[in-house]
Amino acid sequence: MKPYIDHQTKYWNKKSSISLQNYLITEEPLSIFIEGRLYSAGMRTPGDELPLAAGLCLSKKIVDTADDFESLKFSINNNKSIVNITLKQSRKERVCNLYEKKELIDSPDSILISGSSIKELCKTVEPFNDATKISLKDALCCIENLDEYQPLRSKTGASHAACLYSENLELLSAAEDVGRHNAVDKVIGKLLLDGKLQRASIAALSSRVSAELAWKIARARIPVILAVSRPTSLAVELALHLDMTVSCLAKGSGLYVFCGADRLTACS
Fold first, then answer.
1. What's the pTM value of the predicted model, to 2 decimals?
2. Alpha carbon separation from 229 to 70, 208, 248, 249, 255 (Å, rounded)
């Protein structure tokens, strides 16, 4: 399946009206089964299905490393896209309560973070204690250059993107999707499955930073979040508890830094 389709469009402005070829981003359902049980069902842009599923499993604490997977398989049966996951026996026994659900909640990929649950949630993740440093100029470039890694957006104008960088600004992974959560799961899942997630120090997002996205990035042990749009109050509260850095674009080609400013250094 292509990530976009051609579509005949009527273009109108105050002076004229013409027909032209346009592009629409593809949105298709994906079902994720863990140990034969339906765990997640949602919409996504086709591509990177296994990284998406792996990233989701990491954020939901079903796995901690790629070694916890016995297998991940993607298939299309009767026009239905499915990822089947099996876990190593030792992992299966530890986390069976997390995936043995009788029914899906309305938003299975949501972590349902609330203000009252932040402290309890953060007890399950060690606060960051790292020496990551990035110049303010480089941080700004990471956000402003996201368009370079959004070929799907340039065609359709309708995708979110996520990029992961090492501390020395090496691009490690990039992904696009119609959903911002999917883009983050894909980009994290790629490195998780490649055994390179420990190299990631910076996440650059085309979207706002919600508490759920901050949590996904925290679970991936990435201390710096740079985004196009502002974070939510809960995202900043979570980041403060975990000593993460959260920053976004400001007017005039600048940055707002909401927490963890010590990792962002003056331009040389």
1. 0.90
2. 38, 4, 6, 6, 10
